[in-house]
Write a structure and sequence with these properties.
Layout lengths: L7 H23 L8 H13 L3 E5 L3 E8 L4 E7 L27 H17 L6 E8 L7 H7 L2 H4 L5 E8 L7 E2 L3 E2 L3 E10 L3 E2 L9 H19 L6 E10 L5 E2 L2 E10 L2 H22 L6 E8 L3 E2 L1 H14 L3 E2 L10 H8 L3 E7 L19 H20 L3
Parallel strand pairs: 3-4, 3-5, 5-16, 6-15
Antiparallel strand pairs: 1-2, 2-4, 6-16, 7-14, 8-12, 8-13, 9-11, 10-12
Helix pairs in contact: 1-3, 1-10, 3-10, 4-9, 6-7, 8-10
């Protein structure tokens, strides 16, 4: 690490508050909450912001924005998510979440939140070193894809100043040696999650002729869905169709009246995402009609994430700043996973850029995000995460 001289006062503040911030991280880690149920987490974030004298704007169910004003200059938004996952923690850390909870921060959102609060603290203590407005956007519900939309629907863009750019980061074992970086253009896939209900006709298992078996229909659908990627998508395009859950009936000798399948799709463009989901509906309807179901199938959208496209100009600006200040800078390639971060930028009509920061030194064989064993190294990841926020915003906010 070789941060420029203009960051020296921030590094001094970080040194002074390191212990407090580490304890704050441990609190978030030990108190995980599921998506859109993060009431204690949200309250703690608000408490921390108010203690720093920061204006707090509640947005939506549990979302918050800390508005840090420091004279004339650009407005920059930075987003951190703070929900956890329904996974029992198996890390063995002395600050693990209680196993009885069955919930853990298996994706690093506790690190994102602590780092953003740390950056706010450092900005508040060093107002001579920067000018403008910093929006600390704390977003719930990323894991379900509901949180960013909840904030947008609640009027995010009308409640706080409009930023010139929106930035964000994520920790994970993507880059070795605690490296950081990303690339412009498509980064994550657009996602759609749909629950399909197939209506059959219940009967005794010994009398299948008296029923219409939704399990058999579901099996035909599941097999047929595999042909979408294999036979309807250009081999040069990335597309994924996954049936992640199947539910029907409660006994071995009964033909169920209904069956449910949950399907997810991934694609780098909205156009291909729409094509995949149109094909799913076509196949499901055709199989149900072929089987003579008493009524058409039902489709319920249960989640998703938008097309994710890092702005080229913003990417160049931030990556240039990273290369000036960090030794390990690269990119993690394109991922078939999904993120609702673009919804925040889109709500403002602002360009956005998002990167990964390595959670461990050696990434080979390390548990990934969403594993019950996932845990970023507390240090230097916390320090590096805070520093990355300051460096990324410096082209807009920093003096000197």
């Amino acid at each position: 690490m070789r941060l420029e001289e203009k960051f020296t006062p921030f590094l001094q503040s970080l040194e002074a508050h390191r212990g407090e911030l580490e304890n704050l991280y441990k609190w978030f880690h030990q108190n995980p909450e599921l998506s859109m149920q993060e009431f204690a987490t949200s309250a703690r974030i608000q408490e921390e912001l108010e203690a720093l004298g920061v204006e707090v704007v509640p947005v939506g169910t549990t979302g918050l924005v800390g508005v840090v004003r420091n004279g004339d200059g650009p407005t920059v938004g930075f987003r951190a998510d703070f929900d956890a996952l329904p996974i029992k923690e198996e890390t063995g850390l002395e600050y693990s979440a209680s196993p009885e909870l069955g919930i853990m921060h298996a994706c690093g959102h506790d690190m994102h939140t602590t780092a953003l609060l740390g950056a706010v603290r450092l900005l508040q203590e060093n107002t001579d070193a920067w000018s403008g407005t910093f929006l600390a956007i704390f977003q719930p519900g990323e894991e379900t894809g509901a949180g960013a939309q909840d904030m947008a629907d609640a009027g995010l863009a009308t409640k706080v100043p409009t930023p010139e750019v929106v930035l964000g980061q994520h920790v994970g074992p993507m880059l070795p040696n605690y490296g950081l970086g990303a690339l412009p253009g498509p980064v994550f896939a657009a996602a759609e999650q749909t629950k399909v209900t197939i209506y059959g006709q219940g009967a005794h298992g010994s009398q299948p002729h008296n029923g219409i078996d939704p399990v058999v229909i579901a099996a035909s659908i599941i097999t047929r869905l595999q042909t979408i990627v294999a036979r309807e998508v250009d081999p040069q395009d990335m597309a994924v169709v996954t049936v992640g859950a199947v539910h029907a009936g409660n006994s071995a000798n009964t033909i169920a009246a209904t069956a449910e399948i949950s399907v997810s799709t991934r694609a780098f463009t909205s156009e291909l995402s729409e094509k995949l989901n149109a094909s799913i509906k076509r196949i499901v309807r055709a199989e149900c009609e072929a089987a003579g179901t008493p009524k058409p199938p039902a489709f319920e959208r249960i989640g998703g994430a938008p097309e994710f496209h890092n702005d080229e100009a913003t990417a160049d600006t931030v990556m240039t700043a990273f290369r000036k200040n960090f030794d390990e800078v690269g990119d993690f390639g394109r991922l078939s996973g999904s993120e609702d971060f673009p919804t925040i930028g889109n709500a403002f009509g602002a360009p956005y850029f998002y990167w990964f920061l390595g959670s461990v030194k050696d990434i080979d064989g390390v548990p990934s995000n969403h594993s019950p064993y996932f845990a970023p190294d507390l240090q230097p990841v916390l320090d590096r995460s805070i520093q990355a926020i300051l460096v990324s915003t410096s082209p807009w906010l920093m003096r000197g």
